[in-house]
């Protein structure tokens, strides 16, 4: 298949094998066939965006039982509140209108709503839209495309800001999204979106950032080239220390002068050969080595008679568990706070997901930390576990036990 973003040729550099849908947590008595995909990553020769070779139909991933809540992390809730305040501070229109694509449970837009600013959240997960509405956020359960954009503009007028977080990378039909943005955005409006950054994935070796929902891994270089195809310009970039490293991209219609940060980062990506096949092949070799070392650590814990459990049944953990061949024999349970996941089995690997034990005495000897991007928050919360001798297995930025 050609590049989904620009139509140019692509080359494969990574094969993570047979993988399930990352958020398809199954009931133990569900004997129906599981959906599988072959998870391969390719890089485009034209726009340089990294993407999956084979997209999963988006309706299989984002639906009325979607289990992830933006508000589940205090750190991310604070991040989105600060983001909302920043967006509000930049609004100059007399009656501004803010649209969020992939608004989830309304965490970011709740601050916008509190300021009395016209807004709309668009998200296909009806259950999360219901939670947003309960927060007094104006939201709709829809897919964002050209038709939706046209309907929203007719009803509300042009958008002064269109914002998306961890959403643009989810949508294989990126040209369709840009067509919608061309329709919806005011002439002097901006598009602001943040997604996992390819440079950080390569630097940290965070291969679990590659899974079915993360169809694209963007960089400043690739976003600038894709935006140009649709009459937009990348006018600013900002590195964010969330979700294991993200970039916040600001797009505007052609004519606005980019900030110095844009050229500086694109030049850095060139020096680091971020998009070149030798660099990407080295990353793939590192991933294979990390798989073997992680299994060795788990085998060692089992041989020593120490109990091990997974910490947080993240979507990313599906890639780790299935690529590394980790099942209940090495990891008998994964603990998670999400009610929709509790009492179910992890996708593909079929490890039971349970609520965290109420008593510290029932904790395992060792946790395998899947939510490594929230490590600071989690380690502070679980200090008593460490004080009593509990240990953590981590695999980002390297495999280590301690």
From TrEMBL:
InterPro entries: Methyltransf_Zn-bd_dom_put, Methyltransf_Zn-bd_dom_put_sf, MeTrfase_14, SAM-dependent_MTases_sf
Coiled-coil region: none
The name this protein goes by in its record: Class I SAM-dependent methyltransferase
Entry keyword annotation includes Methyltransferase: yes
GO biological process: methylation
Domain C-methyltransferase: 242-397
SUPFAM superfamilies linked to this entry: S-adenosyl-L-methionine-dependent methyltransferases
Sorted UniProt keywords: Methyltransferase, Transferase
Highest taxon above the source species: Bacteria
Residues of the Methyltransferase putative zinc binding domain: 3-62
Single GO term (MF): methyltransferase activity
Gene3D superfamilies: 6.10.250.3100, Methyltransferase, zinc-binding domain, NAD(P)-binding Rossmann-like Domain, Vaccinia Virus protein VP39
The keyword Disulfide bond appears for this protein: no
